[in-house]
TrEMBL record:
Keywords: Plasmid
Segments for region (Disordered): 1-23
Protein name per the record: Resolvase
Length: 105
């Protein structure tokens, strides 16, 4: 016999029947380990008064505002083009270059 943990019961109660609506996205928190980057980002958002939400022109609903108007696919395309150009120049990388590559200091 298995009993569901409190966390499992809470997650199950929060779910609704069926799939998530097409326009909805799951919000995941990603920790930022570079404290200097975090402070610079906070200062930029406060200085430029970047809104946290914007009205979607297509749906008319309020959505979380993106700071940059580029997608993950755009970044991946830029990186793959840069890696191809580097390979043409004879440069090789010991690890795969991805948007989630962590810099070693």
């Amino acid at each position: 016999m298995q009993l569901a943990t409190l966390k499992q019961r809470t997650e199950k109660a929060a779910r609704t029947a069926g799939r998530a609506p097409a326009g909805s996205q799951v919000h995941r928190l990603v920790p930022l380990s570079d404290h200097h980057y975090v402070s610079q980002l906070q200062m930029m958002v406060a200085t430029l008064k970047i809104p946290l939400e914007r009205r979607n022109k297509r749906t008319g609903r309020m959505e979380k505002a993106r700071i940059w108007e580029i997608t993950d696919r755009t970044v991946r395309t830029w990186l793959s083009e840069a890696v191809e150009a580097a390979a043409a120049d004879g440069v090789t990388f010991s690890v795969p270059v991805t948007p989630k590559l962590k810099l070693l200091r």
